[in-house]
Amino acid sequence: MTIAVPVVMAISIALYVYNKFKRFRASGGATKQWYQTKAMIALGVFILAPGLLFMFPPIWGVVEFIVGLVFSLLGLVYVIYGIKYYKKALPFAKEESEATRVSGNER
Fold first, then answer.
1. pLDDT along the chain (107 residues), means of 10
2. H or E element: which one contains 26?
3. Where are the domains of the chain?
4. pLDDT value of position 65
5. Helix (H, G, I), strand (E, B) or coil at 56
6. Concatenated DSSP letters for 57-100?
7. In the prediction, which pLDDT does 12 show?
8. How far is residue 33's CA from residue 26's CA, in Å, rounded to a whole number?
9. Among candidates 6, 43, 5, which has minimal Cα distance to 35?
10. Closest Cα to residue 20, out of 7, 12, 32?
11. What is the Cβ-side half-sphere exposure of residue 95, based on CA atoms within 13 angstroms?
C-alpha cells in the first residue's frame, strides 16, 4: 500500500493540473465548469490517498489516525461533490460542444 499511494497521488495531481489548464483554455462556460469538476475529483483523490495512508499503519498512534481521518473525509467530500457536479455539468458541456462543432462546420 505504501508504493501505491505515491503513484495514485502523482497521477491525481497530474490530472488536476491537466484539467486546470484545459479549463483556462476552454471557450464556453459549461465546458469550463466540466473541466473544473474533473479537477475537483482529482484533487479529492489527491487528498484522500495520504489520508488513507495515515489511517491504516498499525504502529502509529491516535494523532496520526485522527489526521488521516480528517484528510480522508475532506478528500471524500471533494470526490463526492465533484462527481455530483460532474453529472450536472456533462449534458450542458456536450450540448455546448455540439453547438460549437456544428457552427464550425457551417463556415
1. 84 95 88 93 94 78 87 95 93 88 69
2. none
3. 4-102
4. 86
5. coil
6. -SS--HHHHHHHHHHHHHHHHHHHHHHHHHHHHHHHHHHHHHHH
7. 95
8. 10
9. 43
10. 32
11. 7
Which position has the grid cell 489548464? Answer: 21
Distance, in Å, from the CA atom of 91 to the CA atom of 98, rounded to the nearest integer, reads 11
For residue 56, the model assigns a pLDDT of: 76
Nearest to 75 by CA among 47, 56, 100: 47
**28 neighbors 66 (Cβ within 8 angstroms):** no
pLDDT of residue 44: 95
**Cα radius of gyration (the chain):** 18
In this prediction, residue 105 carries a pLDDT of 66
**Cell digits of residue 12:** 491525481
User: All 3 cell numbers of residue 95?
Assistant: 450540448
What is the per-residue DSSP string for 39-56? HHHHHHHHHHHHHHHHHS
- Angle at CA of residue 47, ends 44 and 48, nearest 5°: 80
